[in-house]
């Protein structure tokens, strides 16, 4: 009887433990997918705040201490990730700022040809190549065929970029056409959003011709 009671108690403990694990798994399955990453991020931010507060109380520079305790390869990877995630385009603020961003983008892509520069300098001469207030003839510089081709290619690239991100582009021209008008296109999008994952196998069978 004592052995039977011990086995009965072990079975009850196992059943209780199994029930707790099932409840925990059900709770975790109902959480968002990024819950764990978000929780770790919040814990890291809390530890960061506490460490910064402690350094301020001691009169120390927390950023300097953190930099000294960070490995060089990790610091390089963090800096590279920060550069990748930083968006240089802050959006429209003013026409002056937009023009300045365009100017900086064009100048960053500019690759000067020093050989052509020196050749033009020899042809024109120092007096005309570096004009001053006493220079009578202005505009002695002339564009080369390569420079004009590069300008034309840059203008075409800007036009392509504007067309790609135009607000009135309502659909992807490379996508599959499965509609007869605009109303039917929106209806198909709604159907695909709600039932697409359930009909994926049927669509693949129809495309392969293996549907029953």
UniProtKB/TrEMBL annotation:
<protein>
    <recommendedName>
        <fullName>Pre-mRNA-splicing factor SYF2</fullName>
    </recommendedName>
</protein>
<keyword id="KW-0507">mRNA processing</keyword>
<keyword id="KW-0747">Spliceosome</keyword>
<dbReference type="GO" id="GO:0071013">
    <property type="term" value="C:catalytic step 2 spliceosome"/>
</dbReference>
<dbReference type="GO" id="GO:0000398">
    <property type="term" value="P:mRNA splicing, via spliceosome"/>
</dbReference>
<dbReference type="GO" id="GO:0000974">
    <property type="term" value="C:Prp19 complex"/>
</dbReference>
<keyword id="KW-0508">mRNA splicing</keyword>
<comment type="similarity">
    <text>Belongs to the SYF2 family.</text>
</comment>
<dbReference type="InterPro" id="IPR013260">
    <property type="entry name" value="mRNA_splic_SYF2"/>
</dbReference>
<comment type="subunit">
    <text>May be part of a spliceosome complex.</text>
</comment>
<dbReference type="GO" id="GO:0071014">
    <property type="term" value="C:post-mRNA release spliceosomal complex"/>
</dbReference>
<keyword id="KW-0539">Nucleus</keyword>
<comment type="function">
    <text>Involved in pre-mRNA splicing.</text>
</comment>
<dbReference type="Pfam" id="PF08231">
    <property type="entry name" value="SYF2"/>
</dbReference>
């Amino acid at each position: 009887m004592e052995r039977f009671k011990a086995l009965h108690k072990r079975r009850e403990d196992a059943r209780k433990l199994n029930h707790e694990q099932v409840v925990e798994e059900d709770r975790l399955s109902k959480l968002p997918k990024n819950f764990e990453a978000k929780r770790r991020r919040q814990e890291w931010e809390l530890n960061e705040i506490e460490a910064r507060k402690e350094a301020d109380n001691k009169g120390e520079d927390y950023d300097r201490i953190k930099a000294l305790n960070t490995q060089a390869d990790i610091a390089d990877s963090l800096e590279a990730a920060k550069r990748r995630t930083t968006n240089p385009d802050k959006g429209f603020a003013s026409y002056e700022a937009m023009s300045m961003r365009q100017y900086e983008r064009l100048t960053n892509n500019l690759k000067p040809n020093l050989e052509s520069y020196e050749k033009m300098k020899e042809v024109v001469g120092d007096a005309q190549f570096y004009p001053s207030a006493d220079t009578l003839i202005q505009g002695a510089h002339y564009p080369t065929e390569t420079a004009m081709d590069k300008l034309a290619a840059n203008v075409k690239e800007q036009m392509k970029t504007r067309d790609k991100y135009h607000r009135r582009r309502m659909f992807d021209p490379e996508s599959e056409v499965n509609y007869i008008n605009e109303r039917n296109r929106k209806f198909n999008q709604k159907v695909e959003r709600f039932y697409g994952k359930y009909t994926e196998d049927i669509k693949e069978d129809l495309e392969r011709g293996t549907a029953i």
